[in-house]
Amino acid sequence: MATSSSSSSPEPLLQEQRFLDALDRDRWPSTERCRSLDEVALTPEALTELFESQLMSRHLDLQARRLQARGEAFYTIGSAGHEGNAAIARALRPTDPAFLHYRDAAFLIERSRQVAGQTPLWDLLLSFAASRDDPISGGRHKVLGSKALNVPPQTSTIASHLPKAVGAAHSLGLWRRLGGGGEWPMDSLVLCSFGDASFNHSTAQGALNAAAWAAYQGAPLPLVMVCEDNGIGISTPTPTGWIEASMRARPGFHYLACDGLDLLDTWRAAREAEVIARLRKQPVFLHMRCVRLFGHAGSDAQQAYLSASRIAAEEARDPLLFSAGLLRRHGVLSRDEIAGRYRRIGEEVAELAEEAIRRPKLESAREVMASIVPPRRPGRRQPARVEGEVAPGTMAKLINQTLQRLMASHHHLVMAGEDIGRKGGVYGVTQRLQAQFGPHRVIDTLLDEQSILGLGIGLAHNGLVPLLEIQFLAYLHNAEDQLRGEAATLSFFSDGQYTNPMVIRIAGLGYQKGFGGHFHNDNAIAVLRDIPGLLVACPSNAADAVGLLQEAVRLADEAQRVVVIIEPIALYHTRDLLEGGDDLWCCPDPGPEHRLSPGEPGQWGEGDDLAIVTYGNGVYLARQAAAELDPAGQRLRIVDLRWLTGIDHDAVYRAVAGCTQVLIVDECRRSGSLSEELITGLMERGVAGECLTRLTAEDSFISLGPASTLTLPSRAQIVERARALLAGA
């Protein structure tokens, strides 16, 4: 998305003059859909308020550009031309969650009329000025959002909010099945809005498909998806008729259209959409045709890609001109009354702007980062007696038992993923859970990772705790923006007011035998490790899998965190460590109170000559190597990290303290790997560089068949490297 960086365009001033000229002449354009107010059940007072909301939005756009030219505002993408969405806001309830397009200031302003004590002009100006007092983001971004108005903030919303809107709509029916609860009334509907260019994004198409897929099967989905079609995406035109042709006959959706220049027509369509979504629980695609004024963003000079005649034609379609015409033709306001409102609102915005730019800004990194980690809230665990088996079991078996226990004790926990229900997952980890807890709590999703993660984010918005499964780590990469751009940023951009806690289980890493290639053996975790606020865990054994999973659910439920658990596929069903039948890699279930806190490492052995620091499959291989080199653990110790982000480097340093040499075994790729951070952390704490060695995977994809482990650390390589280091010690 383009941002403003240079002096403001003259277009806003020209458009303002065009409105004033029309006012002087008292000549206004009209649409062919001019209905009476009685016909659409809208009072003169309501029409006046809608017009005032449009004026407020417009004056904010104009003021943002004036402030930007002075260096006092920093992000001037505006709503000019889209102000008709005020009528949509009026047709809905303020308790209906709204995931808004970045051109929906008029919607936010109009909704604020429905809740006492709101100051939308002041709030939005604080956002323009990046003030610490901005009530939604605390100065971190210019966003449209409000906790009181049930508008979670969106940032550069190129369709990434559509999947979570689908999930939020699904959550309403789910809470009805669960007997009540959640953040919103159960008869709410969910609104999300987006542009005609965003419609073409794969994320948008995935969300539309997921909504249609669910509705086609009869699932309740009270959802209104508003496409604000201004005919152009930055500089690329949308083909005429494309949106309608794509959606009019789409199964599962009700297609409605309106003229966004005409408040009465938009009000009519919005009320119809509201009835379908709220009462019939079915998704609506509301196609609002509008116009984009002032270019894409503050620095966008649309003269570079649009002809002068096209620009003039668009400017003549200003919705404010049409709204003023409605007020005049229906005898609601005189010309002088329209002029008075226009001037009064402009003066109010200008006066407030001068105050807003003087409000304090964020002044330290600590202040900026304060809302990355969400605030805590009380947990909602309920007593439930679920007996686990006493006999030692594999990682897959103990994860299954733990999931059963968690689902029984957390009635707001919902699982979702591909094939996790009837099949029980590719590796049988979720077997029998759907039969016990029902398909509404153990959801077999469609084959789309973006939709799975979006479903989870939407459920979490409404007070549920999603426990999602991504079938293979390689399948995450086409959907990782749902974690990076949506889940992990929500607390940051809402100053901690909104959270979407969730746990994502991902089968991953290498060493898997008999199944293949790099799409099923993937050791790329760097994309997860650099997301601020995201916690990533990786168990090496069954007992730790229980402790990490139970802690992850606690962190999501109480600390509102987003937690990813990477489960080593190769260790799911591993029983033996040294020889067939020894069952040394099986563990008894440590029980419901066993939890492993973030940063808490594990340790085997007490030796002082060599510490092997590793995780996941590396722990298993290191234990095999230790059996050959030092079976009693007198010279070796193995440190199991367990957590791959939020690493407690002081704890790691203490775990290797006193050892002559440290070997880091990292099964992920050398470049951008965990070993780089570990080396740095130990050196910063005084460990000499000559005492540190690392063994990593190659910078390669993983091959098929017998070659599948050639690029990964092996037991033999660990033995060889350890012998050399022990000899030196």
Report the sheet with the most strands, covering strand number, pairing sense and barrel closure: 6 strands, parallel
Percent of residues in helices comes to: 25-40%
Q: Gap between N and C termini, in Å?
A: 56 Å
Structural class: alpha/beta
Oligomer: single chain
- Could you list the spans in which at least 5 consecutive residues all have pLDDT below 50? 1-8
Kindly describe this structure.
- With 729 residues, the chain is of the alpha/beta class.
- The chain is built from 24 helices and 20 strands.
- Helix 21 (617-629) links the parallel strand 17 (610-614) and strand 18.
- Helix 3 (85-91) runs parallel beside helix 4.
- Residues 1-8 have low confidence and may be disordered.
Q: Which characteristics define this entry?
A:
single chain, 729 residues, alpha/beta, 6-stranded parallel β-sheet, 5-stranded parallel β-sheet, 24 helices, 38% helix, 13% strand
